Amino acid sequence: MVNRVVTGAHYGLRDWLAQRVTAAIMAVYTVIALVVLLSGVPITYSVWHDLFSQGWMRVATLLFAASLAWHAWVGVRDILMDYVKPDGLRLALQVAVLLVIAAYFGWAIEILWG
Amino acid sequence: MSQAAVKKTRPKYLSLQALLFEIRLPVPGWVSILHRVSGALLFLAMVWLLWMLDRSLSSEEGFERVRHYAGLWPVKLSLLVLLWAYAHHFCAGIRYLFLDLDKGIDKATARLTSWIVLATSLALTAVLGWKLW
After folding, report:
1. Maximum CA pair distance of chain B?
2. Which residues neighbour B95 within 8 Å (Cβ) at sequence distance 6 or greater?
3. Cβ proximity of A71 and A51 under 8 Å
4. B27-79 per-position pLDDT tens digit
């Protein structure tokens, strides 16, 4: 029986699998982004702006941001679970990290559709 | 027998001193800790990267300012470190996906793929850094 800790993980497959699925999504986006960026067209403001005005790029970047948010949460939580032992401090840091990630995600949406 | 005497016979645990001076990490261990360090670094730098993306898309003037800013050497150096962090996290992550599938888990292969990860991420940093500037 796992000793369940309130600032621990979910003791199951979900986060482990989510970290890998989100990693795969981000890897695909990374390859596509590199192909676009290195296609030989000089990146001027109009090229850059037009790229992020296209629906597919906005949606793809949103999926990347959502994947990153989930992936980063699992990763940073693992780091906190390994190095921060006092429960109160760990909980406070975990809440702070969640708030930061939520804020980043909101900001990403604003950048994409603002 | 006192409890302290019993404790003395137990195996050494991972003290900071042992980690820093006594235990030499094998290559897969270096890939592992660098995977963690690069992930933490990217998380901490996210606010800065988002800020640059925001500015660069805000207006032509903002774009040119970010381009100028990214050309300053301390900024360029920091971006290269982040580029390496991304490349390492990417390559090491793909290696872990294979390990999850029980591919390459014998010692010789695990060490070889670790070297490949370290070399590929450095090469990617050099090539992409050169291409993007």
Report:
1. 77
2. B31, B104, B113, B114, B117
3. no
4. 999 999 999 999 999 999 999 999 999 999 999 999 999 999 999 999 999 99
How many of the other CB atoms lie within 10 Å of CB of B33? 11
Put simply, the answer to whether A76 touches B90 (Cβ < 8 Å) is: no
Task: Give the number of other CB atoms < 10 A from CB of residue A67.
Answer: 21
Pairwise CA distance, residues B78 & B96, whole Å: 26
**H-only helix segments in B59-106:** 60-71, 73-100
Mutation for B interface: A45, A82, A110, most B CBs within 10 A: A45
Single-letter amino acid, residue B72: L
Task: Please give the ipTM for the structure prediction.
Answer: 0.91
Which residue among A44, A52, A72 places its CB closest to the CB of B43?
A: A72
